[in-house]
Amino acid sequence: MILSNKYILPVPAASLERIDRSSSPAHTGKLRNAIDLIAPVGTPVFAAADGVVRFVNDESNTGGPSIEYWNDTNFIVIEHPGGEYSRYDHLEFKSAQVKPNQPAKSGQSIGRVGMTGFTYLPHLHFQVFVFTGPNLLMDFDTLPVPDFA
Ligand SMILES: [Zn+2]
Question: What are the pLDDT digits (tens) for 111-125?
Answer without folding.
Answer: 999 999 999 999 999
